[in-house]
Structure of YbaB/EbfC family nucleoid-associated protein:
Amino acid sequence: MSEETVPQQGGTGQPKGLLQQMEELMAALNADLSALDADLQAAGDAGRGSAEESQAG
């Protein structure tokens, strides 16, 4: 596995609990999905605008 997929230990030297690791992963996933959703909505809005212009012409 790469370093990116292996959860790192906290700064205190204590290993993180499984629940804490899962919460952090879910938070990161939610952030990624929110960014993807925003990108897709922006692309959809841009596509809709150009389609409306081509129909008007």
Notes: The longest helix spans residues 18-56. The mean pLDDT is 80. The CA atoms of residues 5 and 25 lie 10 Å apart.
